[in-house]
Amino acid sequence: MSEKVGFIGLGIMGQGMTHNLLKAGVDLTVWNRTRSKAESIVTAGAQWADTPAALAHQCDIIITCVSDTPDVEAVILGEDGVLAGIKAGALVIDMSTISPHATREIAAKLAEKGAHMLDAPISGGSEGAAKGTLSIMVGGDVVQFDRAMPFFQAMGKAITHVGEQGAGQMVKLVNQVLVVITGLAVSEAMVFAQAGSLDLEKTLAAVSQGAAGSWMLSNRGPQMIQRDWRPGFTIDLQQKDLRLVLEAADQMGVPALGTSLVFNLYRTLQQQGLGSEGNHALVKALEHLSGFRVGDGV
Amino acid sequence: MSEKVGFIGLGIMGQGMTHNLLKAGVDLTVWNRTRSKAESIVTAGAQWADTPAALAHQCDIIITCVSDTPDVEAVILGEDGVLAGIKAGALVIDMSTISPHATREIAAKLAEKGAHMLDAPISGGSEGAAKGTLSIMVGGDVVQFDRAMPFFQAMGKAITHVGEQGAGQMVKLVNQVLVVITGLAVSEAMVFAQAGSLDLEKTLAAVSQGAAGSWMLSNRGPQMIQRDWRPGFTIDLQQKDLRLVLEAADQMGVPALGTSLVFNLYRTLQQQGLGSEGNHALVKALEHLSGFRVGDGV
The CATH number of A170-290 is which of 3.40.470.10, 2.60.450.10, 1.20.1250.20, 1.10.1040.10? Predict the structure, then answer.
């Protein structure tokens, strides 16, 4: 791994990912909007760049892992952004979850400078980032995918090339459609079971193994019964991703009936100040509508 | 198993169940609205009763496995029904999927004659009925549950006592809420992925193992891509069960946003004559709304 890597975005995900890159022996330079968040990784051996442009000027591979579409646009296309410093032949890997449409626009601007781009959004949460077990869904040129593979392997486990530029983001959005509507299934079922005065533990045991089964049911169902709202993924972050789903669905001309419903239900929870709870707190929106409370009398 | 068993309802499920009871050495009497459907089991050694009342008069345990709430009411409460012939101490086991509310009303009428009742709806389809691998969710008195256990074991594998009278039906409805909304998740995700020109096989592979995963995704997702609409469970039967869910939700005063949405989408498919297709043909309702067709160009 002789290529120099720059990493932009030292949030909850970037912290684990950069430490794993360093551990793998990568020559690493970092930049973050808030410099203090870089202290840990700089102490561990990474170099600091003063701007994204300066970072890009020094690096062969530039990884971005920030919050949302405007953040990626700012660090790549903005003043002193990556685009201003990038070298021909360099590779930008965006590991944020952002708009597939915006991804293709950014890729086109990088291409004008002779630079490449992969979209490589991740799932697995901060725990997966820390442990190096992220799932990585990659869109873009296969040659660039192969080039990036050793670095992906330092950060993740299930690394899948899913198609052309933007396809990684699109698959991530498909993942989120599945997560939230399956979460609605579990939420509606739990409130229905509660209203029917069922023993919720026995009910879960009776239905989890067959055609009704899902990761959300087996993992978040018991948390709902225990009213444990600690986040694997927060409502606020989930809502950001659903906005991307609805935006993409609108651009493609496809309805998203279930996702829209969940988006609106999450909105009511955000209004109540519950945005930092786990996405399975969706059940609370149905509780508020009905007056039944999952786990009461259990 | 010295108790004499009567079995009412020789449909697609009852055929397999009665043959498995006979194989287990049960002394079996049967009745069915259409007598010709009893030929196979009578040839195999079962006795025929001329009415449900006559059957009840001869038997200690009476199993009903018919289509819907009115059918159970007809064979138990109707003219020459089970109630007219039943002996004190006898046990009625209803293995149909019907209204939990109606179940409790029927049980009360049987109790007036000194007879017991269990509700024991099943899942696993005609294949599970034939193989004796049904899942059985049982509501009612534990002593009666223990009494029925040897007969359940002749017909099924996962046999769970889930609570009081009506609880078996309620858990079955919870199961159906989960099945259809998880099915909506898979359907919406597949149409979204198709609209995004994704490789659907790669997409499934990338998302099936994590938080987005479900039995419906792993089993019905590939069928959708192959446009294989053979039923594990038909839209018409699913719709019958959803009507029970919505009726129970209404009686309990609990909203059922996701189930209502799926009910309405299935209605459009029934109007198009697709009621005998598998419940995963739900994706066709979203295709009709959008103009995208899953599997095109794959």
Answer: 1.10.1040.10
